[in-house]
Amino acid sequence: MILHRRLVKDRIAYYLMLAGAGLSIALVPLIALALAGRASTLLDQQSLGKLMFSVTWSPLKGEFGFLPFVVGTFWVTGLAMVIAVPLCMLSAIYIAEYAPNRLRASVKPLIDLLAGIPSVVYGLWGILTIVPFLRDYLIPRLSGLTRIGLLNAENPTGYSVLSGGIVLAVMVFPVIISTLDEVFTAVPHGIREASLALGASRWQTIKGVVLRRASPGIIAAIVFGFSRAIGETMAVMMVVGNVAQIPRSIFDAGYPLPALIANNYGEMMSIPMYDAALMTAALVLLLVVFLFTLGARLILMQAMRSV
Amino acid sequence: MDTVIQSLGLTVAYGSQRAIDNVTVSFPERQITAIIGPSGCGKSTLLRSLCRLVELTDGVEIWGRVIFDSEDIYAPGVDVTDVRKRIGLLAQRPYPLPMSIYENVAYGPRIYGIRQRSALDELVEKELQAAGLWEEVRHRLNEPASALSIGQQQRLCLARGLAVEPEVLLCDEVTSSLDPLSTQRIESRLIELKQQYSIILVTHVLRQARHLADYVVFMYMGELIEHGPSEEFFANPKHEKTRAYLAGEFY
Amino acid sequence: MRHRWIRIEETLMLFLMRASLLVVLGSLVFILATILIKGLPALNLAMLTQIPRGGYYLGKEGGILNAITGSLALAGGATAISFCLALAVAIYLHNFCSSERWASVLRLALDVLWGIPSIVYGAFGFTVMLFIGLRASLLGGIVALVLLELPIMARTMDEVMNLVPSGLKEASHAVGATRLETAFKVVVRQTLPGLITALLLGFGRGIGDAASVLFTAGYTDRLPSSLFRPVASLPLAVFFQLGTPVADVRARAYASALILTGMILVISLLTRYFSRWGMRNVIR
């Protein structure tokens, strides 16, 4: 009955693996459910919409307005994307379209290395270089421009949404660049050749044909970068200032959602509803990231399939 | 017989491997020349080196000259985009650009600075007619080109190539991915087009070469074996390899 | 005229592209150089071999052996567990799953999990621990890190297994092997270097992550001793030491970051080595 035992083993393994696969699929709903369970004590009293648009954050009085944190998150993430997207687009186009194979082969591991650097190290780098640069160099020089609201430097410390944006931009470089590289490589060589054969220059070909063909993938890459940036915690928290206010200028301190969660885990059990509020924040973060990543993945799958 | 384009000692190597070796041959003007030979003999490489597309491959090396309009297209200072405009290429598989049918044909002219809508309209119609596609697509010019069938796409690519008014048209096994009917359509287009264009055609289908070509170039393992006017070439091949190939002993 | 403009545009764009790539790669060099220059002066043997003594956080003697061993325990434990889970998922995808649709749903789920921020895993781990009455501990940290590493490892293994030609699996089935036997005797053997790459990737991610262990593993000055006691970790060691006003302690934070970065660099080099080695052995 040796044969029989082998088949039984196969069957058992099958069910175990099926369980593992099922767990992977069930995990996102499971996390959402667990967080929602904790958050429900707060959400039963106040609607999510009201919490999101309320400004006052004062846990001791039981007021949990998330607006400053939501706005702070979008400030930091937005600045990061403004910095990262053009740089990543240009770099990725260069790597995919112009660089000779040897350069390409030596650049990619460096990009991977950038992706592997821990978040706290990025944060430390920000504290040691970006923050002092803003404090000692940029802000004093821009002090004459206070009339331009966005550049108004009332906070001279350097711990600001701009610092967070810069650090975050560097962190999402590898995410965006490697996705873009994949997307550009998937554009068939023949359509580049078709355009070049008509006498178009390389840049004209990229502009008129490659970017157009790759546009869904480019959007996916940017959304990826965005959703990675939105949930990044430690590095941002270390340089962004963490003041619960709505930032008005790039030099103002902000307080993004992930930093809020990470900073207050210590006292969340000692103030009523505080834990529910923080878990609500985590839930919101999860839902936003989930929708963005899912959307980007679907776009990317579609884009890769049409090749 | 006037020569439109001529290669002199042309050698193309990928790394240490020579794809074509020391090829010297003249292509006649306003005729169809067929480059034939077994697969991997370098016929595509030869064709692509005539419009400087071969140099896009990483690590390729090119020696020798290609004379077109009494100038070497590989000479330093030559504008490569100008060469590629004047010497068009139709590829093995149709690669419609990711835009509408109209935009595909207008792509080249737009690059060359034609912006006037009426001029573009006129040009698009003219070239689509020349490619024999106009009647089929005239009511749906704004649909994406990818919606066309493969055969239609290939004719669209032909129209797109003609729209920049090249002098030479290079065709790289243009019918190998097409069904018999589409093949026939393309072939009859080419015969018509040779009134205005010099056509150089790579094919591994002997029937096509017999049917279309006025002049034939035979390549084997990267070397030029024999070339001559079509009738003479097929009726009376001089080289032993040519005879074996024509007899179907290898392909 | 036209030609000149096109050439200018081409040159300009090329310049911008090269400059951008230089900024991207430059930032890597900048980060590594900053950590090295700031961290090296404070680095000494005691940092690596001692746990914090009394008054360590005021600048007195001691080291961060607690954090180093804690991180190794956390990431090691989590990597071991997720390796098994990820291998099961990857083998399921390649040897057991017969529906293409179901496989792509599973891949999509893993990709989405990959994108979920570690702070969310931390918060989730925390709620689960509250639920079952577990306090911040090595076990809690391991669970959070398993969730973080699982999608990375599973997808990496999946990609590697994609390179196994289907003919190879067929050949094994043809001699009467079961799916399980084919998986372990053919696929795993064929992809072993790739699996090690996946393992290292997961380990690297796990050892560097702070947000997920913040709630779940806690922090302590002691060496890890039990699954149910809190453990220290390197990223949090950097973070906490940085928060003090004492300059000497902040310098130790830099040194701790250097140690962490050094570990990541070693892991990354090993990953490179194994993935290259793997490519050489794969039968295509």
Short description:
The complex is a heterotrimer of chains A (307), B (251) and C (284). Helix content of chain B is 36%, strand content 27%. Chain B is an alpha/beta fold and 251 residues long.
Descriptive terms for the model:
heterotrimer, A: 307 residues, mainly alpha, MetI-like fold, 11 helices, C: 284 residues, 2 domains
Topology (elements, then pairings):
The complex is a heterotrimer of chains A (307), B (251) and C (284).
Chain A: H1 2-43, H2 48-52, E1 57-58, E2 63-64, H3 67-98, H4 101-116, H5 119-141, H6 161-186, H7 189-197, H8 202-231, H9 234-239, H10 257-264, H11 274-305
Antiparallel strand pairs in A: 1-2
Helix pairs in contact in A: 1-11, 3-6, 3-8, 4-6, 5-6, 6-8, 7-8, 8-11, 10-11
Chain B: E1 3-14, E2 17-28, E3 32-36, H1 43-49, E4 60-68, E5 71-72, H2 80-86, E6 87-90, H3 101-111, H4 117-130, H5 134-137, H6 150-162, E7 168-172, H7 180-193, E8 198-202, H8 206-212, E9 215-220, E10 223-229, H9 230-235, H10 240-246
Parallel strand pairs in B: 3-8, 3-9, 6-7, 7-8
Antiparallel strand pairs in B: 1-2, 1-4, 4-5, 9-10
Helix pairs in contact in B: 3-4, 3-6, 4-6, 6-7
Chain C: H1 2-39, H2 45-49, H3 65-96, H4 100-115, H5 118-132, H6 138-162, H7 166-174, H8 179-208, H9 211-216, H10 234-242, H11 247-281
Helix pairs in contact in C: 1-11, 3-6, 3-8, 3-10, 4-6, 5-6, 6-8, 7-8, 8-11, 10-11
Radius of gyration of chain B: 18 Å
Topology, number of strands of chain C:
0
Low-confidence stretches of chain C: none
What is the number of independent domains of chain C? 2
In the CATH hierarchy, what is the superfamily of the largest domain in chain C?
MetI-like
Average of the residue pLDDT scores of chain C:
89
In one word, what is the shape of chain B? globular
- Total strands of chain B: the figure is 10
From the coordinates shown, what is the CATH architecture of chain B? Answer: 3-Layer(aba) Sandwich
Greatest interface by residues involved: A-C, 84 and 87 residues
- Look at the structure and give the CATH class of chain B: Alpha Beta
Secondary-structure element pattern of chain C, one letter each: HHHHHHHHHHH
Q: Tell me the name of the CATH class of the largest domain in chain C.
A: Mainly Alpha
Question: What this model shows, in words?
Answer:
The complex is a heterotrimer of chains A (307), B (251) and C (284). Chain A is an all-alpha fold. In chain A, 75% of the residues lie in helices and 1% in strands. Chain A has eleven helices and two strands, in the order ααββααααααααα. Chain A has a two-stranded antiparallel sheet. The relative contact order of chain A is 0.15. Chain B contains ten helices and ten strands. Chain B has a single domain, classed as P-loop containing nucleotide triphosphate hydrolases (Rossmann fold, 3-Layer(aba) Sandwich), CATH 3.40.50. The mean pLDDT of chain B is 91. Helix content of chain B is 36%, strand content 27%. Chain B has 251 residues and is of the alpha/beta class. By secondary structure, chain C is mostly helical. Chain C has two domains: 41 residues; 235 residues, MetI-like (MetI-like fold), CATH 1.10.3720.10. Classes of the chains: A mainly alpha (307), B alpha/beta (251), C mainly alpha (284). Chains in contact: A-B, A-C, B-C. At the A-C interface, helix 1, helix 3, helix 4, helix 5 and helix 6 of A face helix 1, helix 3, helix 4, helix 5 and helix 6 of C.
